[in-house]
Amino acid sequence: MARKPLMAGNWKMNNTYGEAVVLAQEISNNYNKSWTGKVDVLVCPPYIDLKPAKTVFEFDRTPVEIGAQNVYWEPKGAFTGEISIPMLKEVGCTCSIVGHSERRGYFGETNEEVNRKVRALVDAGMYAIVCVGESLAVRDAGTTEEFVCAQVRAAFAGIDAQEAQRCVVAYEPIWAIGTGRTATPEQAQAVCHAIRQTLAELFGAQVADEMRVLYGGSMNVGNVEMLVAQPDIDGGLIGGASLKADQFIQLVKACL
Ligand SMILES: O=C(CO)COP(=O)(O)O
């Protein structure tokens, strides 16, 4: 089955409100409407930038989705500092990144919390971009696939095939994030293939065949072609290179 590629920008903690408007406008200006239907494009700005970014894309009728970088599973209440799914939906988010290694590493997010977030998103009709990936120590120990596939199983616990089908998995080796050290296409393909096999065990071959698996970690205009040419890599989750409209647009074009 031919999966439609997804090119997603994770802006992380970058861009003030004003800067977000400028970047969204540049992306919108450079988006070519002939790409619609061939590649999905998503940006995940900081919470405060979601609405201004969405307003730019909506005004221009540019089919770029917006998603959050994180979410809390309770719909409302006394959870100071958190953002709920209804809040994200109302500003036009279709999805949220869940379990990014920076959240797992700096903010202590556990596999159980990742799972609660994924369940809450799919219950609300949104989709999750579930991030998984190993540290250098795990890679050196030779247990990468075991580690990453255990993260996938934990994230999707209690989720049925129909709900999972809308979700995306992003393989982001921690040692490749923001380091300029990309996984080789062979390394990335091997892990993405193992992820798809795990999805097949959980949800059946047909659903696994339809789910998108992205690569993330120093993906840039120089290495994107080789990475997205791999049979189990269906696009990218981009940090640094998504902050420059011209580079992000090049990455989108590489998926066509
Ligand atoms: O963490 C990432 C995307 O979520 C990848 O970041 P970089 O593209 O900056 O390495």
Automatic annotation (TrEMBL):
Keywords, in A-Z order: Cytoplasm, Gluconeogenesis, Glycolysis, Isomerase
Residues of the active site: H100, E172
Keyword Cell inner membrane: no
Segments forming a coiled coil: none
Binding site for substrate: N10, W11, K12, G178, S218, G239, G240
Gene Ontology terms, MF aspect: triose-phosphate isomerase activity
Pfam families: TIM
Reactions accelerated catalytically: D-glyceraldehyde 3-phosphate = dihydroxyacetone phosphate
Pathway: Carbohydrate degradation; glycolysis; D-glyceraldehyde 3-phosphate from glycerone phosphate: step 1/1; Carbohydrate biosynthesis; gluconeogenesis
GO biological process: gluconeogenesis; glyceraldehyde-3-phosphate biosynthetic process; glycerol catabolic process; glycolytic process
GO cellular component: cytosol
HAMAP family reported for this sequence: TIM_B
Family, as annotated: Belongs to the triosephosphate isomerase family.
Quaternary data: Homodimer.
PANTHER family xrefs: TRIOSEPHOSPHATE ISOMERASE
The name this protein goes by in its record: Triosephosphate isomerase
